[in-house]
Amino acid sequence: MALQKKIPLRKCVATGEMHPKKEMIRVVRSKEGEVFVDLTGKKSGRGAYVSKTEEAIAVARKKKVLENQLEVKIPEAIYDELIRVVLREQLK
Predict the structure, then answer these.
(1) Please, which residues have CB within 8 angstroms of residue 53's CB and are 6 or more apart in sequence?
(2) Crossing angle of helices 54-63 and 76-91, rounded to 10°
(3) How many CA atoms lie within 13 A of 39 on its CB side?
(4) Residue 9: CA count within 13 A, CB half-sphere
(5) What letter would DSSP give residue 70?
(6) Alpha-carbon gap, residue 21 to 88, rounded angstroms
(7) 50 with 70: CB under 8 angstroms?
């Protein structure tokens, strides 16, 4: 009898859907208030997860859900970096 490893699920702040952690992108706010994209998923700070789709990122940008979740102003460069990560994933 083989035991299946439990796959951690995370909820997308933009769409509200649950996905495996590896299929999500984490955006982190550090204690200093700095915001960055965490591709490892292990950096310290308050994190919010977004699905790896352009639609989810567009919803997050339009509704400002990341700003609400992280309680800080999100620079446009963060959204641009999220789009680049999604496009890079699609090429693989």
Answers:
(1) 86
(2) 170
(3) 9
(4) 6
(5) H
(6) 18
(7) no
Q: What is the pLDDT of residues 8-36, one digit of tens each?
A: 999 999 999 999 999 999 999 999 999 99
pLDDT at 9: 96
Is the pLDDT reported for residue 2 higher than 80? no
Please tell me the distance from the alpha carbon of residue 34 to that of residue 60, in angstroms, as a whole number.
Answer: 18
Under 8 Å between Cβ of 35 and 74: yes
| Measured distance CA(63)–CA(1) in Å, rounded | 47
Instruction: Tell me the two tokens of residue 76.
Output: 């446009």
Taking Cα atoms as reference points, which of 44, 78, 48 lies closest to residue 61?
A: 78
Distance of alpha carbon 38 from alpha carbon 32, whole angstroms: 16
| Higher pLDDT among residues 3 and 17, named by residue | 17
